[in-house]
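hiii so my PI (J.) wants the whole complex modelled not just the main chain, which honestly fair. so below is everything: two entries, each one labled with what it is. i double checked the lines twice but i was tired so who knows lol
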Amino acid sequence: MNTQREKFFFVLKILSVIFMAFVIYASLFIAPEASGFVSTSRIIFYHVPMAWIAVLAFLISAIYSILYLKNKRINHDIIAASSAQLGFIFSIAATITGSIWAKVEWGAFWNWDPRETSILILLLIYAAYFSLRSAVEQDERKAQLSAVYSILAFVTVPFLIFVVPRVIETLHPENPVFETNPSKKMTPSIRMVFFASIFAFSMIFIWILKLKIEVEKVRKKISILGEKK
Amino acid sequence: MSSTILLVIFIVVWLIIALYLFSIDRRVRELKKIVQLRENLKD
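here's the output for the full assembly
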């Protein structure tokens, strides 16, 4: 069982290295420029997967927070916190790549567009989650409070990411996956690179999440061993 | 900036990140073994 798991993660690591290298090459040489944009449109292969992974990470955090409240297993709290941290990092990366694109297309790194404002609010909500975790010392209390907060924080995610930018007028382009206008739809080669990128980023996310969880578990064990001394 | 230069920069950055992840992976595995040994010694 353990060796099978090890084998799975070994394959995942190798595949993520190969796939990401392919995505880098394909985004520059295989995918053509999207219609109506200069070559900055290629940022879609990095920016959108990062944003999607951030949402996935916050979702995992909320699910494990619910599981923690149900089972009171500290491992669930570790997974929830690790996933939220990764979601936060991927959100920052998505914001930075978005700002680079905005500078070229809209003329400024930050324009207070609804999409930019909603991601900023989301970052602040999750920054408060980490503040809460660092403010409480007792492990069980920390896990309980942050689990409740993580669930409440995730309620805002679909609203801030999917609803607000569609309700308020925005300069941000429509997500190409859900694009209904045939002239703006992705060409087959762009679609292929785009989904390869989503796959590569997902594997990297799983790899880093596994590492983060293992580091936290070892840290916990060391602190327990230290207390026993 | 030409696509070839960008390709080289991106690939090098990605390889550095991947190597860093592999090294953390190895260190965590070693640390887990040490912690396991210490736990066995305590028992």
